[in-house]
Write a structure and sequence with these properties.
It is a single chain. This protein is an alpha+beta fold. The protein has 8 helices and 10 strands. The strands form 2 sheets. It has an 8-stranded mixed sheet.
Length: 254
């Protein structure tokens, strides 16, 4: 993988929208600019109808999730430096939603930027290995292109001649790496993007053993010295609290 500082996500720049800085009366306040960007942009028709498939093989669209808040974060299963931290942070976010009894109102989706390798089978294996209860999703070529265009995702493939990262399914070294987008977006119940964060994940805690074992040297270094500008569960939950209008405290992972 490339160094964290070189990972870019064009969404914040792409979403030139009106800023909504006021909170509902007596409700959670809008997140500070240090945590991301408050926006107000409707999902495009192409993104609403893009067919996604989860780790159980179930097909759905973002349009079908109207009435729920959606938290989307890009990742890929064979990322050995940053994505394990995204998954680790999302475990904390999901545990907090569960504890606050808000899981039924908010759907977490990790969307793969590597659909060439991330089949439904691979997503299912990743979910089983890491105790994931939220949604992992992929799309076909057209759906992936629509998601990339709207959300400003980047995914740059780099061949690897002597990879030390072993594919858990094939037991063979990986043949390429992907420099990709990080961060998350929050979509409200009306299909409006309300908050954007384009930072790498800042993980603090204990990773599940299989996630930690998959980390590259760069990933292990990032675990010890995470990017202080990265996104953390408290900030993500504060943004979710503002979007949902309900306080969602940070809860421990059970």
């Amino acid at each position: 993988m490339v160094p964290n500082a070189r990972r870019v996500w064009g969404l914040a720049a792409a979403m030139t929208a009106s800023i909504m800085l006021t909170a509902c009366a007596n409700g959670p306040v809008a997140p500070p600019s240090s945590d991301g960007h408050v926006v107000n942009r409707q999902l495009s028709p192409a993104v609403k109808r893009a067919v996604l498939v989860d780790q159980k093989g179930k097909r759905f669209t973002l349009g079908s999730l109207a009435g729920k808040n959606v938290f989307i974060s890009p990742f890929l299963t064979l990322c050995a430096d940053v994505c394990p931290f995204t998954t680790g942070n999302l475990a904390q976010v999901q545990a907090s939603l569960d504890a606050a009894k808000q899981a039924g109102q908010t759907r977490i989706i990790e969307f793969t930027v590597d659909p060439g390798r991330d089949s439904v089978r691979r997503l299912a294996a990743y979910a089983r290995s890491n105790g994931i209860t939220w949604t992992l999703a992929r799309s076909d070529k057209a759906g992936t292109a629509a998601m990339f265009k709207y959300f400003g995702y980047t995914a740059i493939t780099r061949p690897l001649a002597h990879s030390k990262v072993i594919d858990p399914l094939t037991r063979l070294p990986t043949t390429y790496d992907v420099a990709h987008s990080d961060g998350y977006v929050i979509i409200d119940t009306n299909g409006t993007v309300r908050f954007v964060n384009a930072a790498t994940p800042h993980f603090h805690g204990i990773l599940p053993a299989k996630l930690r074992a998959f980390l590259s040297r760069e990933g292990l270094n990032a675990l010890v010295k995470p990017d202080p500008r990265g996104w953390r569960p408290p900030g993500a939950l504060a943004a979710l609290s503002w979007v949902t209008g309900t306080e969602i405290p940070v809860a421990p992972i059970k």
